């Protein structure tokens, strides 16, 4: 539900920036849009937005720089630094988005661990998920992951493969036709 809210808010903020008489949005609108791009993991749009935000707004609105610091950490895939950068007292303007971003980052990290690791230390799991060791153990138990208490290693259980919806040959041909038609026009 929050994803749908973010999508509609993002579209509205982009529209407001475009119809603005000066071609610029307010600092609060830029902060929300930058946070939404990060929450959607749209790092390219976040980077382009950061480049087009006027320097005067960047210098006068500290929260913009703090949000972008999170974006830089995400760009580098430095999850522990991103969680650390998220530990800020955010304004009411972006608080709900930044909390959603923190949850989204944690979900992505845990899914990545489940799919990419056969074993990981509890401390590495907690650093990648932005939680303490006790919470990492609880998370592991909740997901049915095996914890070796002696070596402090967690053995993630890979989730079952998702079932892919197969498209008929006719559907694939129609899609290919649409692509070619688009490219020719």
UniProtKB/TrEMBL annotation:
It is found in: Cytoplasm; Nucleus. Gene3D superfamilies: 1.25.40.990. The keyword Nucleus applies. InterPro entries: COP9_CSN8, CSN8_PSD8_EIF3K. Keywords: Cytoplasm, Nucleus, Signalosome. GO terms for biological process: COP9 signalosome assembly; protein deneddylation. One of its GO terms (cellular component) is COP9 signalosome. Residues 26-156 form the CSN8/PSMD8/EIF3K domain. This is COP9 signalosome complex subunit 8. It comes from Frankliniella occidentalis.
């Amino acid at each position: 539900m929050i994803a749908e809210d973010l999508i509609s808010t993002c579209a509205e903020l982009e529209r407001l920036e475009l119809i603005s008489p000066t071609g610029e949005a307010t600092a609060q609108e830029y902060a929300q849009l930058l946070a939404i791009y990060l929450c959607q993991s749209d790092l390219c749009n976040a980077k382009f937005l950061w480049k087009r935000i006027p320097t005067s707004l960047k210098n006068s609105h500290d929260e913009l720089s703090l949000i972008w610091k999170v974006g830089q950490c995400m760009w580098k895939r430095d999850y522990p630094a991103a969680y650390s950068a998220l530990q800020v007292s955010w304004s009411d303007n972006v608080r709900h988005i930044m909390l959603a971003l923190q949850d989204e980052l944690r979900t992505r990290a845990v899914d990545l661990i489940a799919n990419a690791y056969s074993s990981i230390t509890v401390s590495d799991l907690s650093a990648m998920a932005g939680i303490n060791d006790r919470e990492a153990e609880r998370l592991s138990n909740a997901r049915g992951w095996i914890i070796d208490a002696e070596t402090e290693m967690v053995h993630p259980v890979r989730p079952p493969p998702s079932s892919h919806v197969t498209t008929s040959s006719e559907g694939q041909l129609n899609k290919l036709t649409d692509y070619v038609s688009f490219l020719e026009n």
